[in-house]
Structures are given as structure tokens and as C-alpha cells.
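Page 42, continued from yesterday. The earlier attempt failed because a stray header line got pasted into the input along with the sequence. Redoing it now with the clean sequence only.
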Amino acid sequence: MDGVSNDRYGAPLFSDNNNALSTQGMCVKTGDFDSPLVNGCPVPCNPKWDTATINEICMGSQCCQTQELDPARDCIMVDGKWRGANGSDILAMRSGWGGQHATNQDPIAAGCTIFSQNDPKSLRDCIEQLGVASSRGFCYLLGCPCVEDVCEMKNPDYVPRCTGGAPGV
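This time it went through. C-alpha cells are written below.
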């Protein structure tokens, strides 16, 4: 939520006033979004959030993934199932993060380290919220283009979202 730092959401980790903590970005054509922001930029969101949170942040619009995962480097197997890696995998030592993944946020936790200001609880919380490309998106009024989850596609019971068809790849 633009400029909001509250008990529920806290301060934005890598956007708004903390843009300088980001190590990558993207060019976005303003005007393609129904944006409540003064600068016309799209509202960032996480397609992995629950429906209620997406509705609250996107104000009824959909949260669309903006970048595809790298199937060779962004996927991790946990409990016998493939999925996109996330910050909890770092804390559980299932992933080394860094250069191991292609689209991970804050690869060496430099932004989280600055953000947390040497508070171990804040650092842990920041790292837990990191993700790969499947957790980055923007709010779109007109609906999302279909993006298959290339990590979940590695599971034998995967059912394609975009084409229908048989499970598994």
C-alpha cells in the first residue's frame, strides 16, 4: 500500500521509499494500469497472496505475475513436490539463495540487512518474505494473461492452467 507502514503490513520492503534497496527493476509503461497512485505507476502485489489480501491491495483488480520463473534454477523440491523457491527455504537451509536462483529477490540479503537495521527478528521477517518471480506482480483491472507455473509443471499431478489438457509434463 503506497506510503503505508502499519501493524498489519509494515513498511514496503523493496518499493516506495525503499526502492534503493532493490537490485533489479523493470520499465513499466504508465497508463496501462488503473492506478490510484499519483505517478500512474502500477500497484505492486504478490500473486501468491490469499484472495482477500489481493482484493484489499488491488482494490478488486487481479494480481498478475509479471515475470516467468526459470524452470532450471528457480524451482525447489519440498516434501516431494516442486514449487518456486522462497525466503522460508533460506531460513530452513533448503536453499543457498544467492546465485542459486535466477529471479530471486535480494540475492545476498543486502537490502534486508539494511532494512532490518541489525534487528535479527526484522532480518528474519524480511528474508522470509523474499521470493522468486512467481511472487512478483502488478494489479491489473482487465485480467491477467495466463502464466503456467513452470515449477509446479514438474509435478506428475500438475493440471495446466492455460490450455486445459492432461496433468504432468
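Notes: Residues 165-169 have pLDDT under 50 and may be disordered.
Reminder to self: strip header lines before submitting.
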